Amino acid sequence: MIGGNADVRERHTVTTPSDEQLMAAIGGGDSAALSLLVTRYQGPLFGYLYRFTSGDRQLAEDLVQETFIRVLRQRTFRAGRPVKPWLYAIATNAARDSLRRAAREITLNLEDATERLADPEPGPEAVMLALAQDQAIAQGIAQLPDEYRATLLLRYYHDFSLQEIADALAVPLGTVKSRLSVGTHRLRDALQRTEAERR
Amino acid sequence: MMNQPKSRPSGDADRLTKKLQEQGFDDEDVATFLPLLERLGQWHAPSPTSEATDRLLARLEPLLPGPSPIRVALQTGPVGFTSMLQERFAQTCLQLTLFRPWFWFSSTLIAILGLILTAQSGVDRSLLLELLGPALSYLAVAAVTRAVPSNTLELEFACPVSAKQLTLTRLLIVLGYDVSLGLILSLVWRAAGVNVLPLTLHWLAPLLLVSGLSLLLSGRLGVHLAVGAVTIAWLLSTILVQSSVDLAHTAGLATGQRAVVLALCGIAAIVVAIVRSEARSRRQLHHG
């Protein structure tokens, strides 16, 4: 049985290379490795950046592209360190830079919601309700400063450990805990304010 | 699936509770904020379309770094005996360009010095050549292990050519050059009517023996200490043997035979040094 397990582990290693192995292969010009890394991380990064930009789909797509371009151009990855926090660190910096360049307040994007309104399932009323809930949460998150927003999104939407967040945002572990505590309280207050305004 | 984060918060209340506790929230806070976290899960993010993925890959492909020349060379490698010979020849030519002029000039100067000294009347030519040989050995070993004092062993290990191949190639160059110098001297002696073979042996024997032992010991003692210790030991033993006729007779060997035995010992030491060159170089790398 041990041998069998070892075989399974070996096959798993062969068929699904680790992120770090993919980065090493990409450094050698392996396009298949790049394709695999993109397939693995495009969705999660898009989800992160979509929420970071409060639902701006086009901007999130552009930022995912910018993130991978920085990965290939900057080559700041150091062997032996985990890829995931490093990748999200680049994505967070790209998003911050973009928002700073545009010097704009985050505004809610209703494009996806109106797309859903055209969809007959599950019905316009339910969609409107979902839209209102989306908007309330998005608005609450949008009111948080960048560093709190990034911390909360990584923790609650992407299941990052505290250490992974610390690595991704280049802050001490204590700061992560503090941001989570303050950010969660602020988010609750923001949501309460938003709901009060809606009423 | 690895590293595939969920796109929305876990709906599992236990997991969310553990998360909040890990963040330092007490039970009261957990009860307060658990509904908030569960509510966050209501905000779904869309997935990127396959067209967006294709566009992204098309944009990224041209930015991929090209494969390094070393990687390409390692993957292709020489095919067939002729290609291998061509590659070895190319390596030798490359190594030739790496030797500094001081090596060629110093070796030639020592040979000329030997020629001048042996031309003097009343001189023990064999003894003189046995004392001069190690000087060439020092230059030979210094040239072969040139990466050690210049701290470039890491670079040599990063090359597709192994440490054994490098040592062998350099030894062929330096010993080939030294033997050529010896042959030129032999031609001069022959023109002067001197018996060439014993003299050539007295020239080559210390050269091979000191070079071989120095290379062998350089991994443990360092290049300069190894060459110094072997050279001093050689000089002392030569003087001792020459000053004690009885000792030479006790050994039961004529001087010519002794030179042959020493030369063979030297060749054996060189072979062992080449075989162990990889490990020797790695030891030097760690000590350096």
Describe the structure.
The complex is a heterodimer of chains A (199) and B (288). With 199 residues, chain A is an all-alpha fold. Chain A has a domain at 1-105: RNA polymerase sigma factor, region 2, helix turn helix motif (Rna Polymerase Sigma Factor, Chain: A, Orthogonal Bundle). Chain A contains ten helices and no strands. Chain A has helices at 2-15, 19-27, 31-52, 57-74, 83-102, 111-117, 124-142, 146-156, 162-169, 173-198. In chain A, α2 (19-27) packs across α3. The longest helix of chain A has 26 residues, at 173-198. The termini of chain A are far apart. Mean pLDDT of chain A is 81; it is low at 1-13. With 288 residues, chain B is an all-alpha fold. Chain B has a domain at 104-287. Helix content of chain B is 77%, strand content 0%. Chain B has 14 helices and no strands. Chain B has helices at residues 13-22, 27-40, 50-60, 69-76, 80-98, 101-119, 125-144, 153-158, 163-191, 196-221, 223-243, 245-251, 255-275, 277-287. Mean pLDDT of chain B is 75; it is low at 1-10. The chains are: A mainly alpha (199), B mainly alpha (288). At the A-B interface, α2, α3, α4, α7 and α10 of A face α2 and α3 of B.
